[in-house]
Structures are given as C-alpha cells and as structure tokens.
Amino acid sequence: MVTSFWSAYYVACRLTKSESDTAELTDKGRQTTLCLGQRLRYLYVQQLSLTPRILTRTDQIHLRSSPYPRALHSLQQVFNGLYPYDRRARSLPPLTIVTRPLLEETLLPNEIYCQRFIELSKAYSRRSAQKCECNPARASGGRV
Q1: Could you give the CA distance from residue 50 to residue 105 in angstroms, rounded to a whole number?
Q2: Helix (H, G, I), strand (E, B) or coil at 11
Q3: Domain ranges of the chain
Q4: SS3 label, residue 95
Q5: Of all helices (H) and strands (E), which one includes residue 127?
Q6: Looking at 24-79, which runs of residues are DSSP E strands?
Q7: What is the pLDDT of residues 125-143, one digit of tens each?
Q8: How far apart are CA 94 and CA 118, in angstroms?
Q9: Which residues fall within 8 angstroms of residue 63, CB to CB, at 6 or more apart?
Q10: Is the dihedral angle over the CA atoms 35, 37, 42, 46 positive or is it negative?
Q11: Rounded Cα–Cα distance for residues 105 and 18 (Å)
Q12: Tens of pLDDT along 14-66?
C-alpha cells in the first residue's frame, strides 16, 4: 500500500482518544527522531557524500514504514531531519510512504498473524526459561 507522506500523518491522527494515547509520539520521541535524521544527514550527506545534498527527485529516496501511526510519525520526523524543507527542491512532488497490510508486514516480527513465528517464539521462551532455571545465578540476576 502506498500512502501519501502527509495523508499518512493525517489518517494516523484521526484516532479516537483511547487509540491516540498509545499511538502518538511524545515530544521527546519527536525530538529524538528528528535528531536521528539530522545525524544521518551529517553522516550520509556531509561526511560520506552517499546521498544528495538537496533532494530533487522522488526516486532518490524510498520511504518504508509499518502501518502503525507511531512508526509513520517517526519516519516523518527522521525524514524531516535528513532532508529539512530547505534541502528539498521546490519542484519535488509529494513523497510517498510504502506500507504493507498487517498480515504481510515484515519490518517487525509478525507475532499476531504468523503462526510459525508464534510457534518459534513460544519455543524460544520455553528454552530460555529452562536455561534460566538450570543456572541459579542467572535466575536471580547474578545474586545467589
């Protein structure tokens, strides 16, 4: 699914009060993701010259996010740090964010819809618990 850069933001913001409480970035989250974009710009644009100084074409960048509102907001903040408005050509058309339906999502472990992942996760948890029980120092956090 392809979502317009800003329409994704507005759709994500049209949540009920209870949904938005868990789905929004905090002010600190917005600031840290913006700073991440600025650090990426310093590294990839200024130091390594791997990306253009000014974004002029949409094919120069690929934006991908999970469909969760917080992830979309995070991506937008990182992008705004990487390419602030004064580093984008005026002729640049609206950018798109590519997302996938939750059933097909691959950016995060799909623990809700992927039966095989659920099985592996449970097996890993059981094995970790067994290992922890065998070593009293681990079970008590190093205190015996």
Answers
A1: 28
A2: helix
A3: 2-102, 109-144
A4: coil
A5: helix 115-134
A6: 63-64
A7: 899 888 877 655 555 555 5
A8: 38
A9: 5, 75, 79, 95, 96, 97, 98
A10: negative
A11: 24
A12: 433 444 445 688 999 999 999 999 999 999 999 999 999 999 999 999 999 98
**71 CB contacts (<8 Å, ≥6 apart)?**
65, 107
Put simply, whether the predicted model's pTM sits higher than 0.85 gets the answer no
Give the closest residue to 58 by CA, choosing from 95, 27, 26: 95
Task: Tell me which residue has tokens 């094919």.
Answer: 59
Give CA–CA dist 82/60, Å, rounded: 13
How far is Cα of residue 88 from the mean position of the Cα atoms in its chain? 22
Residue with tokens 């700073």: 35
Is the CB of residue 70 less than 8 Å from the CB of residue 30? no
Tokens found for residue 24: 């929004």
Residue with tokens 């710009």: 41
